[in-house]
Amino acid sequence: MTGVLVVGAGPSGLVTACELLRRGVTVRLVDAAPRPAPYSKALLLWPPTLRVLAGLGVRATVERAALPIRAFRYFSGGRPLAALPFPDSLAPLCLPQRETERILTDRLHQLGGAVERGVRLTTVDGTGAATLALPDGRLEHIHPQWVVGADGASSTVRKRLGLRLAGSTHEESYLVVDATATGPLPDGEAHYHQSPRGALVVVALPGGRYRFFANAGPGQTMDRILAERGPAGIRLGPVEWASTFRVHRRICTRFQHGRVFLVGDAAHVHSPAGGQGLNTGVQDAHHLATAMAAVAHGRAGEELLGSYTRWRKPVVRRVVREADLQNRLWLLRCPAAVTARDVAVRLADRAGLLRRYARVLANRSAGSKTNRPAGSAGRHTV
């Protein structure tokens, strides 16, 4: 009998499967996509996530492939506004999501697991009973002990359970481009350019590439946005990836239905401001898998899992609220509001508050010890 069925082989699903396998719980990991996504997608790995990766034995591999981000720098109307420096203990690592997934997949294989690709979940209920559509067209009915939905914002698991992502969607559309470039570009930093025309974020990537992210109207190109909002002289080279999307502020009404649980984007979606999305999903996965293993091995009762929504939702609410606030501050256009924002940021910078906030931002996705299941806080071994 499969102990846990994990649906979705992104970072949250891979961490769930790896954490369970290394704790002696049998896992079946399925994904509807025939192959891994080739896109960069999420980038930043904050210290709590790095501690999870250390527990999985892959932190050194990640560090070799990633680029440390030493500071966030903010500009308003082309002028420097403030800096948020990160000491070594708080600095996030920048690594395209596809590379994070590749490293985690390799670890999954080492632990004896595999990703079953082209396998779609068609039904699931609160008892954990599920139906899978296999690549050859056959249907397979299974009844694992638990099911984990890690299948993204359009989660089939969530929809089959009748749960909904409550919240709102920003009217603005956004453009993201990963490319080589020349000009006055950040070196191991993320730069935030704010102007009445909108926001532009530039992040250094490993391998001499850059992420460009901006709100964009119909027909706007990144070249045009750079000319309007960025420092003079930046020129895009070959584009590796480009995409448009909308920003959401949504949290699922609950993260559990019976023996089925939601992690990552299946449970919550928000602005990429602050780079917390992947990290919050990894923390969901780590704490849930730790609790499942404790219950599976008789070290805790089922009531521990029954409190999953209660101990993760407050963390998620804070992450979503802060990401949404950052996003709104980027897009201020009223001159009086822009002036008020800039004055407040400069005063906070001079008072040293931004340096204090660096620690909060670096550890936001994990939450406090009171937001973690018993036996998991600060521990990453069986």
Q: What tags apply to this protein structure?
A:
382 residues; alpha+beta; six-stranded mixed sheet; 11 helices; 20 strands; globular; disordered C terminus
Describe the SSE topology.
Layout: E1 4-7, H1 11-22, E2 27-31, E3 44-45, H2 47-55, H3 59-65, E4 67-68, E5 71-76, E6 79-85, E7 93-94, H4 97-110, E8 115-117, E9 120-124, E10 130-133, E11 139-142, E12 146-149, H5 156-161, E13 165-182, E14 189-195, E15 198-204, E16 210-215, H6 222-229, E17 235-252, E18 256-257, E19 260-262, E20 268-269, H7 277-296, H8 303-306, H9 308-330, H10 335-350, H11 353-363
Parallel strand pairs: 1-2, 1-12, 2-8, 5-14, 12-19
Antiparallel strand pairs: 3-7, 4-7, 5-6, 9-10, 10-11, 13-16, 13-17, 14-15, 15-16, 17-20, 18-19
Report what the structure shows:
Mean pLDDT is 92; it is low at 376-382. Helix 1 packs parallel to helix 4. The protein has 382 residues and is an alpha+beta fold. An eight-stranded mixed β-sheet has the order 6-5-14-15-16-13-17-20, with helices on both faces. A six-stranded mixed β-sheet has the order 8-2-1-12-19-18. The radius of gyration is 21 Å and the shape is globular. The chain contains eleven helices and 20 strands.
Question: Briefly, what is this?
Answer:
The chain is α+β, with helices and mostly antiparallel strands. 34% of the residues lie in helices and 29% in strands. Helix 1 runs parallel beside helix 4, helix 1 (11-22) runs parallel beside helix 7 (277-296) and helix 7 (277-296) packs antiparallel against helix 9.
